[in-house]
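Dear Dr. K.,

Following up on our conversation at the group meeting, I've run the structure prediction for Putative GNAT family acetyltransferase from Armatimonas rosea. I'm pasting the input sequence below exactly as I used it, so you can double-check it against your construct before we proceed with anything downstream. Let me know if the numbering doesn't match what you have in your notebook.
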Amino acid sequence: MTKPEVPILYKTDLSAVDWQELRALLIADRFHNGRTAEQLEESFRNSFATVIAYAGPQPIGTARALSDGVCNAYIVDVWTYSAYRRQGVATAMMALLEAKLSGQHVALFTEDAVPLYTTLAYTEETVGMSKVIGTWLRRHDSL
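The predicted structure tokens came back this morning:
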């Protein structure tokens, strides 16, 4: 994907997302975690808040929040297409998500973007645990 010279639009409405295209972009940009297009769509639709950044018709960024709507939220799938990194896309997406998370403790996990999140006032924590229940990325047809 070449970088067009168009303004970046940030959308929270998922109705026009081409999930196959988004999955292909994630794969091409080495940010794919194995979800099918259907699982990617389900992940986003089941989220508390979502943002997808577009340069023209092309998606160039994603971010979503999982939340109980009261006191706890978790940010996941923050991605900016490589050609658009370090231009404020992730920062803008995070601001849009955070606007919907007032009063909540917001957590996230990152290995590569600590400097970005530090500039957004996130602090590193030394304790964290995780576990996969059952099979990673369950398939609907196997239920």
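Two things stood out to me. Helices lie at 19-28, 37-45, 89-98, 114-119. The mean pLDDT is 90.

Best regards,
J.T.
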